[in-house]
Write a structure and sequence with these properties.
Length: 379
């Protein structure tokens, strides 16, 4: 049976870059490889098919993997959940497809979140040979967390899965996270009129036109950290604060053509209900209504706080994972699981500050420790 570190190297060896633009990689080969080793270990594997937009209006086939054992109806069912897609390689330093150096394994997605997935897969492989399981473990691997509006976990939830509790393996440094920030994604379009660059009087420059709106959005971005929630305070001094990022601006075709459109793509991380932030966006855009040609909220999710029955044996098992709890500053699929009534904590290996960075790695000793924690949880 493969060890967790070998499974991780295999996962990193598959290019699973994801993006809302054209050219993102398929996750099928990676999921097929996982299905093969799980099936060989006696685990039942199913795929869930769905499609996403390719970036040019065409639909591309995608899938999730769900694995389980013969389940005992008297035991609670616990989901071990994670995503297999990664952000693009970008400026990653080193081999993004994985390498081992000393006591560490490096690669794009090692932190977010193939290390945790490797442990979950290994635990599922061992589960058929474990006596007296305390829960029914169910492995859930989605394909679209980094892009396509969380299409993978949404497809999984369409089937109303009978899961009593779940662990999302996003990186938390093996600290239990029972609170998670909500998220908003929005797109604003400003329209002008094209023309030759030498005749500005015959067109309307969408970039110039959008500048007052951009300045006000920048001011909102700076000030939104003062929207706080004391319930989200933790050892991280920023965990109780909101944030906003203007992440992408698109405009123009070539330097000698007056740009006819400017698109602003932004995101917000919420510690209060999402309606409050949408109202702030509306308030910011109000003086510029004549500029805004289109406004679309791609998604809006409220923050989460996991509520566990203190008398439940699962609550005791959570306390065994970590004796302190924290806040997940990013957004995770755990929010959507909680929204549908599945209590879900975030608990993974690695330091989340390395997510999407130019170098991601996991200490093999930490990987082993995380694997053992998950093993203890299901047994």
């Amino acid at each position: 049976m493969k060890e967790d570190k070998h499974i991780l190297l295999d996962l990193l060896g598959h290019d699973t870059q994801n993006s809302n633009r054209q050219g993102f990689a398929s996750t099928n080969q990676a999921l097929n490889s996982v299905a093969e080793i799980l099936s060989y270990a006696g685990v039942k594997v199913e795929f869930q098919d769905y499609t996403v937009d390719s970036g040019n209006g065409q639909q591309v086939a995608r899938k999730n993997l769900v694995a389980k054992l013969e389940e005992n109806a008297e035991l609670p069912t616990v989901g071990l959940q994670g995503h297999i897609d990664t952000v693009p390689f970008g400026d990653y330093g080193g081999n993004p497809l994985g390498e081992k150096e000393g006591g560490r394994i490096y690669g794009r997605g090692a932190v977010d979140m193939k290390a945790s997935l490797a442990s979950m897969i290994y635990v599922m492989m061992r589960a058929p040979g474990m006596a007296n399981l305390a829960v029914n473990p169910r492995l859930i691997i989605t394909s679209d967390e980094e892009a396509h509006s969380f299409a993978g976990i949404k497809r999984f939830l369409e089937d109303n899965p009978p899961i009593d509790f779940a662990i999302c393996g996003e990186p938390t440094g093996m600290q239990v996270v029972d609170r998670g920030k909500g998220a908003i994604s929005a797109v604003i379009d400003v329209f002008g009129k094209s023309g030759h660059g030498s005749r500005p009087y015959q067109g309307e420059n969408a970039i110039v036109k959008a500048l007052p709106l951009l300045n006000d959005l920048a001011a909102l971005s700076s000030g939104i950290r003062y929207v706080t929630n004391p319930d989200f305070e933790s050892s991280d001094s920023y965990s109780h604060r909101s944030s906003m990022n203007i992440g992408r601006i698109q405009a123009g075709e070539t330097v000698n053509v007056i740009p006819a459109q400017l698109r602003i793509e932004l995101e917000m991380r919420c510690v209060q209900p999402s309606d409050k932030y949408l109202a702030l966006l509306e308030e910011t855009m109000a003086p510029h209504r004549d500029l805004v040609g289109a406004y679309n909220v791609v998604f809006a999710h409220d923050p989460m706080r996991v509520q566990l029955d203190k008398d439940s044996p699962l609550c005791g098992k959570v306390l065994m994972l970590s004796n302190e709890s924290g806040v997940f500053n990013g957004f995770s699929e755990a929010v959507l699981l909680n929204d549908t009534g599945i209590p879900t904590i975030v608990y993974g290996v690695c330091d989340s500050r390395m997510c999407h960075s130019s170098q991601e790695y996991v200490d093999i000793a930490d990987l082993k420790a995380y694997t053992q924690k998950l093993t203890d949880f299901i047994s």
